[in-house]
Amino acid sequence: MSLRDITLKSEYRTLKDDIAKDFYIPALKQSVSYKRAVGFFSSSILAMITDGLYELYQNGGYIQILASPRLSDEDIEAIRLGYENRDIIIKNAVVRELRDYEDFKTRDRLNLLACLIAEGRLDFEIVEPMLTNGSGMYHEKVGIITDAEGNIVAFSGSMNESSNAVENNYESFDVFCSWKNADEERVMSKVEAFNRLWEDQEENVKVFKFPEVKDLFIKKYQTDCYCLQKERDCDFDEVAEPKVDYDRVATDDNIAFVRPEWLHLYDYQLEAIDKWQNNNYCGIFDMATGTGKTYTGLAAVARLCENVEKLAIIIVCPYQHLVEQWAGDVRKFGVNPIVGYSGSKNKDYKRRLASDLFDFRMGIKKRLCFLCTNKTFSSRAIQEVLGKTRGEHVLLVVDEAHNIGAEHLRKTLSVNYEYRLALSATLERYQDDDGTMAIKRFFGEKCIEYNLGRAIQEEKLTPYYYYPIVTSLSKEEYKIYQELTKKMMSCLIKINGKLTLNELGKRLAIKRARVVSGAVDKISKLRDLIEGGYKDKNNMLVYCGATRLVEQDGDISIHDDIRQIDYISRMLNIDYDMRTAQFTSKENAEERELRLRAFAEGEIQALVAIKCLDEGVNVPQIQTAFILASTMNPKEYIQRRGRVLRLYPGKKFAVIYDFITLPHAVEDVPYLDADVRAGDISLVKRELCRLLEFERLAKNKHEADEIYSELIDAYELYDFDVGNESVWEELV
């Protein structure tokens, strides 16, 4: 057989095709050469296409990979090990490592990668663009597969070489075959282009053979891994922020934590720091998303370091990507922090923390800086180590501090921390007065309250237009909603004189909220908007719910058991031929960064997300947001609005489409029984609360007011008062 004998389509799409099974494996089985040029490579792809690679291996085949330097630590180590072992094999004539199919198949991806390199079956070259502005990355995505008869299959498109690209991304690529007259010229053009790159004969790029690539060169790119997620917390003076060689950041923890000269702070940021200092370095920075929390916080730490000779600094964040972003910013202040969480590159962070803390207590070190997630901070091991700081000068900084008010986390707020700083755009915890009060008691008074309205007025955030899109539950959805509501009523209990839901009731409430989030009417309304002028637009964000669609009689069946985010991704990409990518917790840091970069460069028109963009990820290019799912929790919808309002060159305003969900269509409300209408009120009021908050600051407030008035009239809610709802209405 040859490549001519297998069935190949002219185009493959990940949400329609099984890329590994339908394309990679059958093509590689017939091949003797596989050449791949990609912006991002991960060894995870090897585990998915092992069957094809084994046949290529048996055919005496050879693999060449051209990639950007954005490689994971473990892949770098496997590649390095492979080349080292290749030298040993050549010098000592060592027998083959890969003996048979079972041996080949059972090796883990890293071992297989190292073995293929060691045997001279796989070679890496690293590509760096040599651009005049010094920025950019190698971003091409081309593949070339050749069989023993000289037949060639070339493919190109959006897909990188990783399992995530094959399984989870929405990707597509076109396929060209050398034996087809219409494709022959295209195939040869791609072969020649690849070969020129491999031989380092292409202008404006430099190609490095992997054994020659220095660790510093690789790390230069790894350090920049979170550059597009990093919060740009304030503007800068004429002096631009310099490029930082993080490998040369001082590791002497006796140096001061110093605010860099290029960092310009606004008067409101300096006033907040002054007040925090006057409050004995305790307090809260309550600042809207995008107004400078991170740099204000770090500048406050620098101020404390000016006045305290010996200081341990503990910085706590809810998520791993936030920890990494803070770590990058801390280094700009001259300190190399200990970074601790379960997946941290600093595998020995516990040992280093214990060792450095001992030196700190002995006076050998004057500075100690530890960065970690909430989970790591609350672990028994870390709490035991940090408990040894008693009697020392210690500062605790908590980012997204509303999270630390959770019952299991607030127990970590120890009196050992003499100095305290909380940062949050949404400090008040939803339906948790105890948690909110615990935060305020521990950290003290607010040193600044810089809200969204002020930020827009003072041009620190972008003004926006707000369009409520009214949707309603289907008959099937309403039936499920009512059933869950009845079950919830039996779960009400009294605690300290207040009605609340027991644990079962809380789980039912989550299920009911997901029914509302996944209302299929939102799909048709989104279609109308896309067809009305957004099909060819860029810089869009679609927020979905963590829910599955439940329509029974329409095009979407309850038996499909498909998540809303997956359905919308397919709809946008397949029905409208748009370029979108999901942004969820499934993607690793490298994949997220590549998606954000592709989004910034216009390769991706829209990001489709659930909650992963809620806290800490900065994507200022977003101009239009479609919010299909939102809870009553102000923290969530305020953060989602904030994602869209970041300043960006050329961005004069943002547009928000908020999908308001009612139990019944507005036109049907006058014909409903009084009891049915009364049962709808709690959901209607919850949606109206969000509508009022969003339209309050919108440039087109009057338009949103008209929709608000229509809903008030339909349900005769003339005495509706957001601040005067009963406990029952707030809960259910």
UniProtKB/TrEMBL annotation:
Keywords carried by this UniProt record: ATP-binding, Helicase, Hydrolase, Nucleotide-binding
Iron-sulfur listed as a keyword: no
Ranges for the Helicase ATP-binding domain? 274-445
PROSITE patterns membership: HELICASE_ATP_BIND_1, HELICASE_CTER
GO MF annotations in UniProt? ATP binding; DNA binding; helicase activity; hydrolase activity
- State the InterPro entries in the record: ATP-dep_DNA_Helicase, Helicase/UvrB_N, Helicase_ATP-bd, Helicase_C-like, P-loop_NTPase
Q: Which residues cross the membrane?
A: none
The Helicase C-terminal domain, residue ranges: 525-689
Q: Which PANTHER family match?
A: GENERAL TRANSCRIPTION AND DNA REPAIR FACTOR IIH HELICASE SUBUNIT XPB (PTHR11274:SF0), RAD25/XP-B DNA REPAIR HELICASE (PTHR11274)
- This chain belongs to the protein called DEAD/DEAH box helicase
Species of origin? Selenomonas ruminis
The taxonomic lineage of its organism, from the top, reads: Bacteria, Bacillati, Bacillota, Negativicutes, Selenomonadales
